[in-house]
Amino acid sequence: MNSEKQHIDSILSKIGFKELNDLQKETLEKSKTAKDMFILSQTGSGKTFAFLLPLFLRLDEKSTDIQAVILAPSRELAIQIEGVFRSMKTNFKVLTCYGGHSMQVEKNSLSESPAVLIGTPGRICDHITRHTIDLSQVKQFIVDEYDKSLEFGFEDQIKFIYEEFTSLAFTTLVSATEHKEFPTYLSFDHPAVINHLSNSEEPAINFWNFPVKTSTKFERLFDLLCSFNGELTIVFCNFREATESVNEYLSENGYDSVIYHGGMEQDERERALIKFRNGSYHTLICTDLGSRGLDIPEIQHVVHFQFPHSEEAFIHRNGRTARMKANGSSYLLINKEEDMPDYIQIPNSEFRIPNDLMGPIESPWITLYFSGGKKDKINKIDIVGFLGQKGGLKKEDIGLITVLDFTSYVSVKRKNIKSLLNTIRQEKVKGKKLKIDISK
Q1: N or C: the chain end with fewer CB closer than 10 Å?
Q2: To which CATH superfamily is domain 365-438 assigned?
Q3: Comparing 105-119, 306-320, 355-369, which segment has the lowest mean pLDDT?
Q4: pTM for this structure?
Q5: How far, in Å, CA of 164 to CA of 147, rounded?
């Protein structure tokens, strides 16, 4: 027990936590005796670390096989899980596989089996059929956002993957909704249930009625966004065409926003989220693709430019704000000229634009692109050192850094961007000449 406590204290220190929260404590305790676990929790509750900690404690340092498989319904969630595992700074190799990522790069990385394999169901199935992975020694299996995985139609793929396991000892499903029955192939009859849905505090969301007319809807949205004074905001639309129309109107009027929807290429979506997370953009215009599975905890405002077709989708949208015990606001653009969904209750409080409304506020941050990443042996420390030594930047001038396989992105203070680029473009990073520019 002493050894385990030291392990846990060491990891908590590495990821910047002082102690485990209630969800994490209960999951850890039940993992000691349970073969199967069912974790019920919302995004933003610390659920990823809750299931990764017991997974880590069960890993065998002597094994050279894949020991654990984690499935996620979206590429973004899979990458986030990998990020949390890496932040734990264990000695175990982790690899994430997903559609839109180079299959050859993944095959090369799989030549030495990771201890932990994370991926989307489709891509893991691809590797099974190509015989690039051997899952026969997998002891632990986790499906994150199990409910979303079923909603996306991944059950056949999950079953296909599950049937590859011949040494499985532990199965964990993580969900935001309760299930009374599970597929028989899962052998998931009497799981230990960790239910923190009913126990969780209601998010402190202020709901606002914001009246609009069809003819002035874009203009009113513009004023509403300007009134937020640069605080992080997500604007939800029902269709990708609407996100593009909103983004175009805002851009034409000097308001910088970034779009996110399923019609975009994977790398475009990835760049959009990177720039939103690192503060280069204050506002994300998205479809319901952005309502779940994205780890962006500091959203102050959610705006419903269009209402979704289901109450569940409406709830998930609002769940993007007031996370981690913070407060947040949800704005319902109420148009009396249009029919309202039955589930919508018009808030009593009407939001009014202040008389002294300021114009759009430009973010003090901008994102730089580097044409090198993990596969070039470049990490965050290398980029910080480069920008400090070659670019003369102070720590406070450097924001969030994201290092991918072949590219890296870093937010820097916008004020001196031209002189910075002139200074560093001809310099080498770890002896390599990279393309460095403002990210598109």
Answers
A1: N
A2: RRM (RNA recognition motif) domain (3.30.70.330)
A3: 306-320
A4: 0.71
A5: 22
